Every structure is written in C-alpha cells, then in structure tokens.
Amino acid sequence: MAAERTIDLRVRRQDGPDASPYWQRFRIPWAPQHNVVSALLEIRRRPVTTAGERVPAPVWEASCLEEVCGSCAMLVNGTPRMACMALCDRLAQPIVLEPLQKFPVVRDLIVDRSRMFEALKRIKGWIPIDGTYDLGPGPKIAPDRQALMYGLDRCITCGCCLEVCPQVHREGGFIGAAAISQALLFNLHPTGEMHKEERLDVLMGPGGIADCGNAQNCVEVCPKSIPLTFAIGEIGRQTTLKWIKDIFRR
Amino acid sequence: MPSPRTIVVGGGLAGLMTTIRIAEAGLPVDLFSIVPVKRSHSVCAQGGINAAVNWKGEGDSPWRHFDDTIYGGDFLANQPPVLRMCEAGPGIIFLLDRMGVTFNRTDEGLLDFRRFGGTLHHRTAFAGATTGQQLVYALDEQVRRHEAAGLVTKHEGWEFCSLVVDESGHCQGITALDLRAMVVRAFPSAAVLLATGGPGIVFGKSTNSLVNTGSAAAAAYQQGVHYANGEFIQVHPTAIPGPDKLRLVSESIRGEGGRLWVPHDGRPWYFLEEWYPAYGNLVPRDIATRAIFKVVFELGLGVGGEPMVYLDVSHLDPVMLERKCGGVLEIYEKFVGEDPTKVPMKIFPGMHYSMGGLWVDYDHMTNVPGLFAAGEVDYQYHGANRLGANSLLSCLYSGKVAGPAMVAYARGQTAAPANGIFEHETKRQEDVYARIMRLEGPENAYALAREMGEWMTANVTVIRQNRKLRETDDKLLELKDRFGRIGLSDRGRWANQEVAFVRQLWNMLELARVITLGAFRRDESRGAHYKPEFPNRDDARWLRTTKARWTSDGPLFSDEPVDVSLIAPRPRKYDVATEVSGGR
C-alpha cells in the first residue's frame, strides 16, 4: 500500500519577544492547491506535532490570502515571501517557516513591522488636501505617469525588501526601499510635487538615501514587482538636485 | 470644556472616511483595528467605484445611477438615502482624485470609466483591478496626516469586545482586547462608530479576508442593536475555488469584455449572452450566479463535469488587460499556474458580501443612541442585491455622513456617564475571557467553525429551501452546544489567537442564526434571496425590511415598510434594457 501523501512543515517557534526560539514539525494530509497559509490553517484544526505531542497551534499573521493586504510575509525555506501565494507543491519539503529576521518577533511567525508605518509618517507620505469638502476634480495626469505611480502605489508594506537589505538592521539604520518608493510616488503627483522638498529633506538626513548600499536585493524579492531600484535612483537624483539648489540658496 | 472624544472601530474605507471627517471637524478620534488599518479588507475590492459623472457622453446621471441601484436591489432599499449617495458620487470621486488615488486615465489625462454589472453606462472609476487597495491607501495616508498632527490615535492590534451602554440605553464607549497582552480595557467616548465590515467567515470559505467574522456586529446585536435584512447574502459569480478561500475574480474582467461560457455540443455556449441579450455578461451578480448554478447543477454542463465554468479573456488585447485588469489576472496566474490571457479561467461562485447589517437611520445611527454604523456592517444602500462597484461608494458615502453626525451628537452630550459602568463592562468581558481560558474538552474551535461554514454555504447561499434552513438552524444550535466542549490548545497569555477566535466563533454562531432564520421567514424570492418553493417577489407581504432583535431564546423578528417614495416598484428583468423611471 502506498504511503498517504503528506505535506511536512518545520516551524520556528518563539513564545514571546524575549523567549528562546525552538522548532516543531507538523505533517498534514496532502490536498491540491495547498499554500503555506492553508497548511497553517490545517495545523490549527489539529495542533499535534509529528512526534504526537499536542501543542499550542503556531500563530502567524494573515488576512486577505490574495497578496494584497501584506500581512503574511515570512521566511519560507529561507526566502522572504507572502505565505498565501507560496504553493506547497512547488516547495521542497519539509517546508521551513521562520519569522522575518529584521523585525522584532512578537510570537512564533508574527513580527512587529510598525517601523514601516512610522517611516511613512516620517517621509510625509500623503497629499496635503485642503479638506474633504467639494473642491472639484483633481489635476489631470498623463496616462504614462499614472502607470508609473500605480506601480509604486501597489506596495503592500510587507517588509520583504527590508528583510533582504544588508543596510537594514533590527535597530534603526536605513529607512529602506519601501518608504523611498513611496516618497517618489507622492513627488510624482502634481499636488504632492509642491511639497517634495519636505520629503527629500527627510531622505537626505540620517538613515536616508545615502545609506543605500546598492545591493539591489530589494527589487528581486518584491512580491508586487515594484521598481524599487528605479525609485531609489530617482530619489537619489532629486536629492542631488536639491543639494545643489540648497548651496545656491545659502 | 475639552472636546468630546469619539471612537471609530474598523480601519477599512468606511472607518477611515469617518475618521477623516471627525478629525477635520477638530474632534479627537480613537481608531481601533484588529490589523494595521492599511491591511483592512477593503484592499480586496478590485473593479472600481461608481459615480455618474457622464464623462463618456452617454447621458448618464445620478438619477440613472439611483434607478439602476434600486432596480438592481429589487426595491428593498429605502430610496431617499440611496438617491443622496448617488448624487454624492461624483464629488466623492473628485475627492479621491485630489487625495492622489492612482485612477486609470484617458489620453486627455482625465479619469477613465468602465462598465460594470447591472448598468448600461460607463460609470466605474478604477485603479487597475486593485481599486480598493488604492482607495484604502489614499485614506490611510490622510488619516496618517491627522495622526501626525495628534488628532487621531490608532489602536491597531485591538479587537472590539462590547459596547458600554448606560442605564438609559445610551452608548458611552467600548471595551476592547489587546491582542498581544490579552488585556481587556474600557474606552469612554461620546459617540462610537462600528465600521467592522461583513461576515464572510460565517460561511467558512468566501471571498472575504480572515478578519471578516462579523463578530463585532454580532456582539452589538447581542447587546440590543437591531440587525436588518441579514438574510440577504451576495454570492459573487466569479471566484477561484481554493482550499482556504475563494479568491475573487473581479466583475471588471467582464466589464472589459470577458465572457462566461461552457462547452456544449462541441462549441462554446455563452449562456448569459443568450439568456440576457440586453446586459449579457454584465447582468447583476445574483442573476449571473443563479445562471451558473443552473448550467452546472440543472443542465449538468460544468467544465469537465466539475462545478466550474469558463471566464474567458483570451480574445482580448493583453496590453489593455495588463493596464486595466493586471492585479486580478496576476493573482489567478500565481495561484492556478495558468496564464489567463492564453487559457480561459475556471471559476465558480463564492460568498462575497452581506447586503444586510446593523439597522441605522439616515444619519447612520443605530437604535442605540450614540452608536453609529457605516460600511458593509450597515444595511442601508443595497436592498436585496448590491451592484458591483457600489460597495466602495457606499463605504465612503456612509462615512461621509456618519462623521459629521457623530460630531453633532458628541457635541450635544454634556452629562458625564454614570460612575462604574466602565468597570462593570470590563469585568464582564474579563469573565468571558476567563471562561474561555477554562474551556476543556474534545472539540476544536476551528473545526467547529469549518462545520458551520459548510452548512451555511450549502444551505443559506444561492438556493434556499425551508426544510434545509430549519435543519441548518438545528445544526447551529448543536454547534452552540458543542461550543461548551471546546478544548483550548493554547492557554498562553501573550498573542493568543485561539482565545480571540473562540470569542468570535460564539458571535458568528449568533449571527448565523439571524441569517438562516431570516431566510426561513421570508417566503418569497427577491434579489439574492431565492426560494424555489416561492419563486416570485411578493411585494404585498414582503416589501419590508427584516429586523432581528436578540433574545436569549434566539432572534426575535419583526419587519418595517420600505420607503419607496421616489420610484414605484416594477418587475425586475435583465433580458431587455430597463425603462428608467421619470426622475429629474
């Protein structure tokens, strides 16, 4: 009799921010189209390790399951990616799951990515509208520019680009490609452009654009194919121009 | 006198819009969300947002939009607020445009509009096929601006537990659970908004996100808030079946020319185009879903004998598709492993949206003074069936109304809430938490939830039979009984997801009964609610809004008349173009 087909997973666990990590193995029955999140959902329904021990089900973050909410980024067989789109049949087994390493671990596969949202605050990532009352249509935008902006606007703040960046560390350091690409997004908008110097000021400061080491790992790993190195190049150009302009202003 | 505080629960589009409107009026807002608000379920909306700007010169108008919406909803929505929403549509699109939403553009640099279901006009503005994501981001950015200015305080990673209601029945705040430290706290507030979205997880697998349990609405319902039209559940015709969820394939795919077909006598049979020549592939969702059920289950023509039909875009220009539908096709390709521009997609209907929700008045206040509701969690705009691309509009419009209404209400509250009510409610929720922590038995909460979802999907979605509805309610009672025999795998006091889920599961079971028994009670067919035993719409008896009130013996139902003062109800059919009622 052929052995029943299964999916084997090794999960790195950690009970809390200061606890020591440990590993557990799980085995679930194979089914077509399983992805890493659906496998974790299956474990939750029967949280028993391969050694037969009943354990607290591993915890992780996930929500939309279609790669648009940005929640479920983790290391899958060592690569940072969205777990919901990691199809088990295309992965070597046992499938090894670990939390992202560049962010503080909350518990098991959950990490704290609040620094990414703080970075969006720092770069003033918004269009400063006067109010929500009726002020007529917005500015016209050429279709080509819209296409470029749309590509940048698809960033799901998952953290994969920070995870693979040699310049990003758990404690501060480089602001990372995601926030820089967002600064470009707002600088490309006709209203946002009016305030682009405020954003460039931030990116010319500590942890800003100068800290990029040009490793180009970010663009390779981005699940939404955002042109991150192009964005860094463009912001680099804009900061250089501003730097020259600032000299003459003194 | 210091400014009164306000609370918004839920950081999707409705919650964010309300937050912006309150902050703009100068009042501080405490914004609660289970997830970072940028990850809210609104990001899953794909195809676009409706507004009748008539930029394609088709003679479109807000009145036509209103008529399409009322007709599409089979006349169950109260008409005055729907008209106001449609009139506000163009202004809302312009506001989003000014916020920097990366809407697709025409060659002139203007906003582009496409077609959607249930209308013959190009009325839907869109940002690729990820419009919800782009809208959430634009509003999230505006909220971040108010946050940086100190007016908005975000409580991300907190889950709503209950309302704090005083002796006179007024809402004075909420209790919430910190999902990391697992501590319950009370938050006083002069006005509270629930903008907590729909209940997809009640059906197990749906197009919804894992956070869409409907738990917050169900908790409010158990504290006396009325739940209206719960039986009206939208099943989207085109989703990708999966082991964990049913991934949505946007209606915009058909708006841009995609066609539904099955092989029949060796040739493609475009069944919607044959049955509904006027609207073709763009009939409303309830109609398309029932057609697919007929093709698959009655005629036995599912692709390869399976419950699936083709959604075909392989005849369309791939460059156009990339620009207008890229995000959706990419999900299909990544998940299924086939390129939809070359091979027709295989799809099947999936539970998608709740037209019903918390009962609100035209200012979005519930029957509990001081408690407001907006977005999918309210019941106001979609009647018996929602038209595609109207959900983003109703989220934003309801937030636009609720914000100022909350400000006015909060400013009118002068008396301080009675002593002890916050401590009392906190204690009550801590006791619930402690009881869950003590649960010890053979049942697994997630497995119980799966059973609930399977029963609800099988019996309370597309085709409803009274015998099956009765059996489903019996099953729900059985599950409530087994709930007491759940055994926790996790008794930790840090980031314990299982405890939070067990609490949600109870609330889901309560809500599932409202949906099931509401469907049982309504002996007619209207919009998404279809009973073969009662195949016709019965306006004489059932042109009424269902209202459910919680009792310890189960939901107590009543109904109230629908305001049809603007358009007289007429028969609904999509094989011919509808005659728009007079109007303006």
Commentary on this structure:
The complex is a heterodimer of chains A (250) and B (584). The model of chain A has no long low-confidence stretch (mean pLDDT 96). Chain A has 8 helices and 7 strands, in the order E-E-H-E-E-E-E-E-H-H-H-H-H-H-H. Chain A folds into 2 domains: 6-111, Ubiquitin-like (UB roll) (Roll); 114-128 and 140-249, Alpha-helical ferredoxin (Fumarate Reductase Iron-sulfur Protein, Chain B, domain 2), CATH 1.10.1060.10. Chain A has 250 residues and is an alpha+beta fold. The N and C termini of chain A lie far apart (83 Å). In chain A, the strands form 2 sheets. A 5-stranded mixed β-sheet of chain A has the order 2-1-5-3-4, covered by helices on one side. Chain B is α+β, with helices and mostly antiparallel strands and 584 residues long. Helices cover 36% and strands 17% of the residues of chain B. Chain B has 15 helices and 21 strands. Chain B has helices at residues 13-24, 62-72, 79-99, 131-148, 215-222, 252-255, 271-275, 285-298, 318-336, 391-411, 421-438, 445-459, 466-483, 497-521, 539-542; strands at 6-9, 29-33, 49-50, 113-115, 122-125, 152-156, 158-165, 171-178, 184-188, 191-194, 227-228, 233-240, 247-248, 259-264, 267-269, 309-312, 345-354, 357-358, 371-373, 544-549, 556-561. Chains A and B meet through helix 1, helix 2 and helix 3 of A and helix 1, helix 3, helix 4, strand 13 and helix 9 of B.
State the helicity of chain B in percent bands.
25-40%
Low-confidence stretches of chain B: none
Summing up helix and strand content along with how strands pair, one would put the structural category of chain A as alpha+beta
Largest interface: A-B, 70 and 71 residues
Radius of gyration of chain A: 21 Å
Per DSSP E runs of 2 or more residues, the count of β-strands of chain B stands at 21
Shape of chain B: globular
